[in-house]
Amino acid sequence: MKNKINILKEKIQNAKNIAISGHKNLDGDALGSALALAKIIELNFDKKVSVIYDGNIPKDLRYIPLRDEACYYKNIPEGSKFDLYILVDYGTKIHLGGVEDFVKNSDFIIEFDHHYNDDVYGDLCFDDVNKAATAQIIFDVVRKAKFKIDKDIIDLLMLAIITDTGNFKFVRNSDVFIDAAQLVDMGADVSNIVNLLNNKDKKTVLVESLAAANAEFHMNGRLVMATISGKDYKKLDGRGELVLDILAKIHGVEFVVLLKEHLENQIGISFRSKTIPVNEIAESFGGGGHLFAAGAVIMDTLENVHKKVLNSFRGL
Ligand SMILES: [Mn+2]
User: Is this structure's pTM higher than 0.85?
Assistant: First the structure.
């Protein structure tokens, strides 16, 4: 680790221009980690870093510290070259989207990630699949390298941990509580951060609530399926997480499925489970994900996908 940190410092020190990106359609961990790391480099090396993204930034992240530092990749001149590219929370190559050309064009790549990935991009990797958030890996490096940090960095790291753990629901070990506790001691304001995240658009919340209200129940109430039509999909911001959360609260519900009509013959599906893993069902549709939270995209009509999904739960 010490040696890796020395290489990291040397690479940052010697780089003339540095960029940072997370996965396409950023979440709180990807954006929080990217903005935090950019500020860490600025504070400790006196260097300005470009934070570049593809896709959408969810509205609930619009007021987070340093949000305006993030730049949409199409606003960066094509063919731009960075001598150091840092990837955070990117998953796998296919999740990079439009920033991939810049990554390929760079001289050296460093990555910080907590996703499983057997085909990494990094020349230097700070990867750990046991961390609940990529921000924890960055926080580790901050402590080991004795980097200076400020209130923005502390709040961004905390926000990344809060969002990626679903408010500490998806915790696999005690590390994340230790990190969160240290961040609180350093001044992270948890209630303020949580309030900051309550900034979805009214139309989005109403569409998500309506989809939950119109959901159908199957298998004696163990499976609930909600649908968002193509017209309403445009009002969605993110994956429709609120629909899944509301329906999962119902007593007796084990599986929640959300069908989203991206286009006329392209349906996105989100699977959630409270009991039996659903990743294999998602995989049978060409998708994947975690054991209890997975997804897929199918090129078919809403009606056909609805039928196929319902069939896939037979026997469970
Ligand atoms: Mn993450």
Answer: yes
